[in-house]
Design a protein that fits this description.
The chain has about 190 residues and is an all-alpha fold. Helices cover about 65% and strands about 0% of the residues. A two-stranded antiparallel sheet has the order 1-2. About 25% of the residues are buried.
Length: about 190
């Protein structure tokens, strides 16, 4: 067995070291590329949860109630926001859809949410921010407000744009909660 000797020199300029570094960097880049959407969903989910917790805490303090909600699940926090009427029902629907995406990721080895969950999330976001598409002709834009219209559109030639739409939608939901939190603080 070899022990690491602190004075032992490693030649980082050696061909083997450079090859190992290149392989590690390629793996890291592939991992980032493959899991960027999953990572985004998980991180936004955490941010949304923290914002809901702050909203609930502030609302309960104003009512003179105990303010702790840290042990509550995301779902319970969404329900508390609904009961306390802290958020619009459309925002509540979007939060539940994000939670479904997150839960799928937590229990799925593929690290990808199902198309159905993504379409449901886009549907809920479209209720808040109407979504429509145009084919670039003089024809009127087509609304994508229902699950079926979203599935039909993104199952075809526009499938590659779905991840970008999820990204934009998550950012819009995040901004909506940030704005609500700012407004609640006066």
């Amino acid at each position: 067995m070899h022990e690491f000797e602190p004075h032992h020199n490693l030649d980082l300029d050696a061909a083997a070291a450079k090859e190992s570094a290149a392989k590690l960097n390629a793996f890291r880049n592939r991992l980032i590329q493959e899991r960027w959407l999953s990572t985004l969903i998980l991180s936004i989910h955490l941010e949304l949860e923290a914002m809901m917790e702050a909203l609930i805490r502030e609302a309960k303090l104003k009512l003179g109630k105990r303010a702790s909600s840290r042990d509550a699940t995301f779902f319970a926090k969404v329900s508390q926001c609904e009961v306390l009427t802290l958020l619009d029902i459309k925002v509540i629907s979007c939060l539940r859809a994000v939670n479904k995406l997150r839960n799928e990721l937590a229990h799925n080895l593929d690290n990808k949410p199902s198309s159905e969950s993504v379409f449901r999330f886009i549907e809920s976001m479209s209720a808040m921010h109407p979504l429509s598409v145009s084919d670039g002709t003089n024809q009127p834009a087509r609304s994508l407000g229902t699950f079926n219209s979203i599935r039909e559109h993104f199952t075809g030639t526009e499938a590659e744009n779905l991840e970008e739409l999820v990204f934009v939608s998550l950012m819009m939901l995040r901004v909506t909660l940030l704005r609500t939190l700012d407004e609640s603080r006066g």
